[in-house]
């Protein structure tokens, strides 16, 4: 999807959107998520909210490059709901996102083509109603050093515009820093060359 160290996601859940198609109602929602485990509880909430809905179809994508994704038709004909929703996630180039559409059947069958179009449009409306933001991938490091190295370390941090996320000053100094993914290797090299400062990669 993208080779850079930025990605687009949602700042907050979208407002509810509604598409009416031949008496069927399609309620659309988009949610920012960080983990697969968040999907099931959200879908269960939507089923409660729309207890008359025949189907709650959805798609999600996770990871800066969309490494993980899934589409679910929830009983609609194969690939007529989940994949059109997923197609909109790709079209908007967002990740760490769940888009769900609850359908309340209005008595008229739409046919597979009609369903694909309705689920695609409902997903598009939900994403258009969302606040899409760009986030930067970060890499964390822990620096450990003696007080005598403090000036040198702080000067380097300032020079490279690195963000200090936490600091502990006791017998010696421990600083946690965060850098843009694309600058990570340079930062690592700079501090690795700065004897006796120790640098360790962190998962953030």
TrEMBL record:
InterPro entries: Impact, Impact_N, Impact_N_sf, Ribosomal_Su5_D2-typ_SF. One of its GO terms (cellular component) is cytoplasm. One of its GO terms (biological process) is regulation of translational initiation. It comes from the Bacteria. Residues 22-127 form the Impact N-terminal domain. PANTHER family: IMPACT FAMILY MEMBER YIGZ, IMPACT-RELATED. Belongs to the IMPACT family. This is YigZ family protein. It comes from Arenibacter aquaticus. The lineage of its organism: Bacteria, Pseudomonadati, Bacteroidota, Flavobacteriia, Flavobacteriales.
């Amino acid at each position: 999807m993208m080779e850079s160290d930025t990605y687009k996601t949602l700042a907050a859940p979208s407002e509810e959107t509604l598409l009416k198609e031949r008496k069927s109602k399609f309620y659309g929602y988009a949610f920012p998520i960080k983990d697969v485990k968040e999907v099931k509880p959200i879908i269960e909430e939507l089923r409660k909210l729309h207890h008359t809905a025949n189907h709650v179809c959805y798609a999600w994508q996770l990871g800066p490059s969309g490494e993980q994704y899934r589409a679910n038709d929830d009983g609609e004909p194969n690939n007529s709901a989940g994949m059109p929703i997923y197609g909109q996630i790709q079209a908007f180039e967002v990740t760490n996102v769940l888009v769900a559409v609850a359908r309340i059947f209005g008595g008229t069958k739409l046919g597979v083509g009609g369903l694909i179009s309705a689920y695609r449009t409902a997903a598009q409306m939900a994403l258009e109603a969302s606040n899409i933001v760009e986030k930067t991938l970060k890499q964390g490091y822990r620096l450990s050093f003696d007080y005598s190295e403090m000036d040198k370390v702080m000067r380097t941090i300032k020079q490279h515009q690195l963000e200090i996320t936490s600091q502990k000053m006791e017998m010696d100094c421990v600083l946690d820093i965060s850098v843009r993914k694309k600058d990570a290797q340079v930062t690592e090299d700079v501090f690795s060359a700065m004897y006796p400062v120790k640098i360790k990669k962190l998962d953030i």
